[in-house]
Fold:
Amino acid sequence: MEEEPKDVIVLGAIKHGINKFEKIQKTTQIEAEELNKILEQLEKRGLIEVVEKKGWLGKKIEMNVTEKGSKEVDERVHELQTRWNQMSQIYKTGDKEKMKQSMEDNKSFLPMMMFFGVMDMMMFSMMFSMMGMAMSDYVPAESMPEGGDAAMDDGSMDGGMDDGGFDIDIGF
Structure:
């Protein structure tokens, strides 16, 4: 299922505290209409819950990962780590044909590996050099990390801080 990697990326973003539609869209680089469909599917599958909160400026809608959703992300990240470790071992053997086959077999998982910070970007680029190929042959431009590091746990996430509203100082 081609949509599945995006589902996991969206679920992972929510698990890491990105729980508002606009922030999820910005982080995952998924178009609004497609993201809405993914969120609906995740909710139907019981992986997220949608919570409406009342604020000063009207209602706010947040997505929270359920226990089932959290387990799903953890399992997928573990699976990605295992796939990456296998690819790393093949790279270390220096077998170009096996490396090409491994890249082809894992093509749909590469954006997720980047998003979750599972792969070593330096080694990943050396894999392409070894095969004489460009990374863009396998990874769509929108999935390429900016600045070479797309790790979810690199401290760049805002930890769920709600910085999207107004800060009103009433002078007390």
Q: What stands out?
A: The helical segments are 4-15, 21-28, 32-44, 67-93, 96-105, 110-115, 121-131. The first helix runs from residue 4 to 15. Residues 147-166 have pLDDT under 50 and may be disordered.
